[in-house]
Every structure is written in structure tokens, then in C-alpha cells.
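Inverse folding, one chain.
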């Protein structure tokens, strides 16, 4: 027979999965994207700021070249440290230009060989070789590549330090290097303003979008929960009218895309029980009382059959048909003994039953028309089991020789009587064992 259906009555936790995977995952994704965007935006502004300082350095040098060097027919390389008049004139010229730009904190001017021609803050360094002449930042500027880094002073202030090449206006040749210092607060203010403008709107859109999506998911979760509860109630009600094996077969056919109508040959143990004297009882009692008593005895039998691993195949009138796995005949036999014992111990039960058990091969599958079918067991084994049940007296259990030979000695002791029954449809007497 088909296995039990692997199902859950709990609805799919859509909202919880959304919060775990989409909510937290989306937040992590946005944070990573946010960090990457900030880094890219900061680098872009950094490059833009360095370019701005480079233009400022070129403008300063062109002013110095136009107003001081060209009239004297000089270049930076021509200025000698011991030419005090020229050095003083250069200082005064650059001092005048720096005063017009309050953002410049420190300015140094070097020749290609590293001689300090101008030092904004330390005049004693002028005319000497720059101590950091061999550093990477300075040498890169000599190759025409601007170099910038952020320096932190002893007082905690942070500055942008930039080494920039100075090109002659006519030939474009690198004639010297200028070092500029600007306080970073201006740069950081630019970064903050740019990021605020770039990220505020996307962040608001992200929050609103996820809020709306969460509301949609929450509504879908409520719909799924409501429908799951409805389907669960339908399934539980349907299982009262169809056997678990039929429900399992339908489930397997739908999920595994198998043919529901195809029968399969299996080795099974069939169990039949039938109420003795039921017709006479129903004639002398009200229908309501008959149904109540019938349901009581069915409940007793079904509970014991399920306890021993059997499956109720169907209820036919006052008869119960059940199926046990083919390799577990002792379960069917023990269930029969327990049922007889339970009914004998109940004084309020007006019925006694006869039971027949047989084992063998049978066809398990969906039987009927395309519009109305039943998942059941058919074959000679089933017919024989029904005949054994019909032959038994009240409280009597008939088991076939096939079942008797497959059970242990303890259970065999409960069936000491052997006889040969003339069963309908059988050409020869059929060997059976009974409890009485």
C-alpha cells in the first residue's frame, strides 16, 4: 500500500522567510552597496580635488612666471640661493599671490634637483636641498604625475598634501615641483554634500520600496495562511470518507507525476471483520441507535488496527476491510486478538464479530470509472480473506495456513484448531486455523 503523505498543516512562513532572506539580506546588500558607493564617490571627489589643486598650482606658477621670471629672463633653475635679491623678490611675489587664497596653509617651491626656492612657513629652509627629495611623492611629481595624501599634524588637524609638477607654458617641460597644503575640512565638506545629495533620495526610495514590498508579502502571507487552514480542514474532513492509502496514492500521483490508475502487484495481508447478527439488530432498533453503536464498534476496531500498523481500506455496511504489509502478518493477527478481547470485555457493546485473515499477492491500485474511483486491493487473496471472515462464528478468528506459517509460535498457540473449510469459489477444502 502507499506510504503516508509527508505533509504539514502549517502554512508556508512567507513573511518570516522574507524578513530573513529579503529583509536582512537586502539590508546587508544595501549596506555593502552603500559602502562601495561612498568609496567610489569619495575617490572621484578626491581626484577632482587634486585636479583642482593642480590647476591652482599651475595658475600660481604662471603668475610667477609672467610677473617675475619672464621680465627678468629667468627660469626656476636660474635662481641661485646666494642671489638674495632674486630670492627675496620671488618670496614677495609668491607671498602676494598666497594672500589672495585663504585656503592655502602651506606652500613650497622646488627646482627639479630638489632645492627649496620658497617655503611659506620656514624661510631658513630656502636655498637648501629638500629633506624628502628622494620620497616617492616628490619623484612621481618629477615624472609629471601628481601625488596626494592626507597628513595629520600634531595639533590634530588634517591636511591634504599635494606634490604637483610645474610645466613651462611654451614647451610643457617640467621645470619644478610645488607642494601645497590645504585643510581637509574643505574637502570633507565637499564629500559630505555630494554624498548627501547622491544618497538621500535612493535611500528613501529603498526604504519605501521595501516597506511596500513587506506589506504585499504580509498580505500574501495572510492569504496563504487562510487557504492552508481551509485546505487542512477540507483534507481532514475528506480523510473521514477516503482511506489514508487512497489519499497517499493521490498525493504520490500528483507530486511524482505518476499514473494514478495503474495497479501494482504487491504481497499483502488482508483483514476482514464482520458483525454477527447485525441485520436482526437493525430491525429491532432505531436507525439512530444502530448508527451510534456501529460507529462505536468501528472506532474500537480502527484504533487497534492503526495501532498495529494496518490501514483501513473501507467500511462496507457492517464490515471492515483492512490491509497490513505483506511481511507483517503477526501485526494483523495480534490486532484481531486484541479486537476480540476488547469487545468481549465491554458489556455495553451489543455486537460480536467474526474475523478472517489471509496473505498473498493482490493488485493495489485505483479501481472504478474516470469520474468515480476507489483506491483499494483486489484479487483472489482478497476474496479468500472475505470468505474466511464470513465463515467465522461470533468471536471466532480464521487465519489461513499461509498466515499461520509466517507467525511465531506464541501467536500460533492462540490458534489451536485446524480445519478445512469449503469456501465459495474454491474447488478444494481450504486449510485454516482458528482460535475456537
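Residues assigned per position:
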Amino acid at each position: 500500500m502507499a506510504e503516508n503523505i509527508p505533509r504539514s498543516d502549517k502554512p508556508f512562513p512567507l513573511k518570516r522567510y522574507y524578513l530573513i532572506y529579503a529583509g536582512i539580506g537586502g539590508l546587508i546588500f544595501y549596506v555593502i552597496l552603500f559602502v562601495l558607493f561612498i568609496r567610489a564617490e569619495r575617490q572621484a571627489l578626491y581626484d577632482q580635488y587634486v585636479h583642482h589643486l593642480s590647476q591652482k598650482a599651475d595658475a600660481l606658477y604662471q603668475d610667477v612666471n609672467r610677473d617675475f621670471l619672464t621680465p627678468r629672463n629667468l627660469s626656476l633653475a636660474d635662481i641661485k640661493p646666494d642671489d638674495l635679491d632674486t630670492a627675496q623678490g620671488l618670496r614677495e611675489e609668491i607671498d602676494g599671490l598666497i594672500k589672495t587664497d585663504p585656503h592655502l596653509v602651506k606652500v613650497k617651491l622646488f627646482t627639479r634637483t630638489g632645492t627649496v626656492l620658497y617655503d611659506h612657513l620656514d624661510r631658513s629652509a630656502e636655498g637648501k636641498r629638500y629633506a624628502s627629495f628622494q620620497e616617492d611623492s616628490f619623484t612621481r611629481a618629477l615624472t609629471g604625475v601628481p601625488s596626494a595624501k592626507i597628513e595629520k599634524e600634531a595639533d590634530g588637524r588634517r591636511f591634504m598634501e599635494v606634490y604637483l609638477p610645474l610645466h613651462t607654458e611654451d614647451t610643457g617641460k617640467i621645470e619644478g615641483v610645488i607642494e601645497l597644503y590645504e585643510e581637509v575640512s574643505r574637502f570633507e565638506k565637499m564629500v559630505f554634500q555630494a554624498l548627501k545629495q547622491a544618497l538621500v533620495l535612493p535611500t528613501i526610495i529603498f526604504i519605501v520600496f521595501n516597506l511596500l514590498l513587506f506589506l504585499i508579502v504580509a498580505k500574501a502571507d495572510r492569504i496563504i495562511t487562510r487557504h492552508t487552514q481551509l485546505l487542512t480542514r477540507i483534507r481532514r474532513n475528506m480523510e473521514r470518507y477516503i482511506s489514508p492509502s487512497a489519499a497517499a496514492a493521490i498525493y504520490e500521483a500528483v507530486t511524482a507525476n505518476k499514473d494514478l490508475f495503474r495497479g501494482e502487484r504487491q504481497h499483502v495481508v488482508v483483514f476482514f471483520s464482520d458483525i454477527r447478527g447485525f441485520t436482526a439488530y437493525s430491525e429491532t432498533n432505531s436507525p439512530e441507535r444502530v448508527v451510534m453503536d456501529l460507529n462505536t464498534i468501528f472506532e474500537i476496531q480502527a484504533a487497534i488496527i492503526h495501532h498495529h500498523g494496518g490501514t483501513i481500506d473501507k467500511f462496507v455496511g457492517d464490515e471492515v476491510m483492512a490491509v497490513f504489509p505483506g511481511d507483517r502478518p503477526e501485526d494483523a493477527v495480534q490486532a484481531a486478538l486484541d479486537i476480540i478481547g476488547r469487545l468481549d470485555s465491554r458489556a455495553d457493546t451489543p455486537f460480536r464479530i467474526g474475523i478472517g485473515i489471509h496473505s498473498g499477492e493482490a493488485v493495489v491500485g485505483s479501481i472504478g470509472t474516470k469520474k468515480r474511483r476507489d483506491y483499494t486491493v483486489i484479487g483472489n487473496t482478497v476474496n479468500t480473506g472475505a470468505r474466511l471472515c464470513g465463515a467465522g462464528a461470533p468471536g471466532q478468528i480464521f487465519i489461513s495456513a499461509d498466515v499461520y506459517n509466517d507467525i511465531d509460535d506464541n501467536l500460533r498457540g492462540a490458534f489451536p484448531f485446524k480445519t478445512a473449510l469449503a469456501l465459495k469459489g474454491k474447488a478444494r477444502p481450504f486449510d485454516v486455523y482458528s482460535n475456537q
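The chain has a mean pLDDT of 84. The chain has two domains: 16-190, 261-434.
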